[in-house]
């Protein structure tokens, strides 16, 4: 086997960075057989040299000066696990301009600046890989670019945020309210001290932008993704969903339709019979449909030190193989189309609507009349709970254009018989 040594630099030594360091060290004896070379971490960029020294075998590889990495011509691969937009973007661009290959787990950066980074990589015949930017240890970027490249993907959807899936699982299985489930997720380390990006759907939105771009071969940025979080979901909504044969999940859904691409992240009712309905706790899953492969699902740990490090190390191995066989830059940007983005009002969905209305004759008929006048068809109605002179009414619509539904809701919210619209949640499926 080749004795070739490929030197790499690691930018960051936090949870994920430490995981990458461990995985590469543990794989050292296997590397010659798997990739035809050995990848050695030559330098690690850290903020605090003293604090980081306890995490590595040889503290001499630590540095707090990016230039020592950039100007070291022996370093061929840069592994960025710092997170955030800056200085990560600048460092990656400088590395690519210097002819170094880059592996990153930075979903924020790829979702916002992916085109710029991929174009820079192509200009210098460099690899720029980011498998770990979506769904942690679950392989999905490489399958989309390689294994499934012969497909026209029509839909890609998934549960791609472990924090929110854990929260909704506890609300479903143990009857917790949102605040209680979030507190538990924070206590157990599933939720960050500031969970905004997770519970507001922003984290999942960035991942969906990346997957949609690759799946549909057309650029989608984070700003193109409609996002809605789970903060307003209640235990009562969960119970109604169960009565309807559904569970509530935070779903990222991207479709390539005749009228354009639509990408969203929203809490949705999904039938209990769907494969994604059984994905619980902090697990993630991605479900896609292609014209040749049919339906396929990828399932596993979507985050964490070693699952994410697994995806990063896999990319590093891929880059190393390309270096050994002198074929770097062979798979770059796949966004060769410029497909339109569908307007929100033109998107179609079913809706779950929960409201408090006057418990008197003609109330349901007047609400149904408003829906009918706006081309909204009612599929199901549940009326169970009473609070004095008010009744709680749950309506599930057939699939309808969002613009029509919104027009109907503007009228319904102003009706004298409607005391309060408590919740509107989309329902996945026809």
From TrEMBL:
Keywords: Amino-acid biosynthesis, Methionine biosynthesis, NADP, Oxidoreductase, Threonine biosynthesis. The keyword Coiled coil does not apply. Residues 352-426 form the ACT domain. It catalyses: L-homoserine + NADP(+) = L-aspartate 4-semialdehyde + NADPH + H(+). Its EC number is 1.1.1.3. Its cofactor is a metal cation. Pathway: Amino-acid biosynthesis; L-threonine biosynthesis; L-threonine from L-aspartate: step 3/5; Amino-acid biosynthesis; L-methionine biosynthesis via de novo pathway; L-homoserine from L-aspartate: step 3/3. Pfam families: Homoserine_dh, NAD_binding_3. InterPro entries: ACT-like_dom_sf, ACT_dom, Asp/hSer_DH_NAD-bd, HDH, HDH_cat, HDH_CS, NAD(P)-bd_dom_sf. The keyword NADP applies. Belongs to the homoserine dehydrogenase family. This is Homoserine dehydrogenase. It comes from Blautia stercoris. The lineage of its organism: Bacteria, Bacillati, Bacillota, Clostridia, Lachnospirales.
């Amino acid at each position: 086997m080749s004795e070739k040594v490929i030197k790499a630099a690691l930018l960051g030594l936090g949870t994920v960075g430490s995981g990458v360091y461990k995985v590469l060290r543990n794989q050292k004896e296997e590397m010659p057989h798997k990739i035809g070379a050995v990848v050695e971490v030559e330098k690690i960029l850290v903020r605090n040299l003293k604090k980081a020294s306890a995490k590595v075998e040889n503290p001499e590889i630590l540095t707090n000066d990016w230039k020592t990495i950039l100007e070291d011509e022996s370093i061929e691969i840069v592994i960025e696990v710092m997170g955030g937009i800056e200085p990560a973007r600048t460092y990656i661009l400088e590395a690519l301009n210097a002819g170094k290959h880059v592996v990153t787990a930075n979903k924020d950066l790829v979702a916002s600046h992916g085109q710029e980074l991929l174009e820079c990589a192509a200009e210098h015949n460099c690899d720029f890989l980011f498998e770990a930017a979506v769904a942690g240890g679950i392989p999905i970027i490489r399958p989309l670019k390689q294994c499934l490249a012969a497909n026209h993907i029509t839909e890609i959807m998934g549960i791609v945020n472990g924090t929110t899936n854990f929260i909704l699982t506890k609300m479903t299985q143990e009857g917790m309210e949102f605040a209680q489930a979030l507190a538990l997720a924070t206590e157990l380390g599933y939720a960050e001290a500031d969970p905004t990006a997770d519970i507001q759907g922003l984290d999942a939105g960035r991942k969906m932008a990346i997957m949609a771009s690759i799946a549909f071969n057309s650029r989608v940025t984070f700003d193109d993704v409609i996002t809605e979080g789970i903060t307003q979901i209640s235990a009562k909504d969960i119970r109604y969903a169960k009565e309807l044969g559904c569970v509530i999940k935070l779903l990222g859904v991207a479709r390539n339709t005749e009228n354009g691409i639509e990408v969203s992240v929203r809490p949705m009712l999904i039938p209990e019979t769907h494969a994604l309905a059984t994905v619980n706790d902090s697990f993630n899953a991605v479900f896609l449909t292609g014209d040749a492969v049919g339906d396929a699902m990828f399932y596993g740990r979507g985050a964490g030190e070693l699952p994410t490090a697994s995806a990063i190390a896999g990319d590093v191995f891929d880059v190393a193989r390309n270096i050994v066989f002198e074929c770097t830059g062979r798979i770059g940007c796949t966004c060769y189309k410029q497909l339109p983005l569908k307007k929100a009002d033109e998107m179609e969905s079913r809706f779950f609507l929960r409201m408090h209305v006057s418990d008197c004759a003609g109330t349901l008929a007047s609400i149904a009349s408003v829906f009918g006048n706006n081309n909204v068809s009612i599929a199901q109605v549940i009326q169970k709970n009473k609070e004095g002179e008010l009744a709680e009414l749950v309506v599930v619509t057939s699939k309808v254009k969002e613009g029509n539904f919104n027009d109907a809701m503007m009228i319904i919210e102003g009706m004298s018989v409607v005391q309060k619209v408590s919740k509107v949640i989309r329902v996945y499926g026809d």
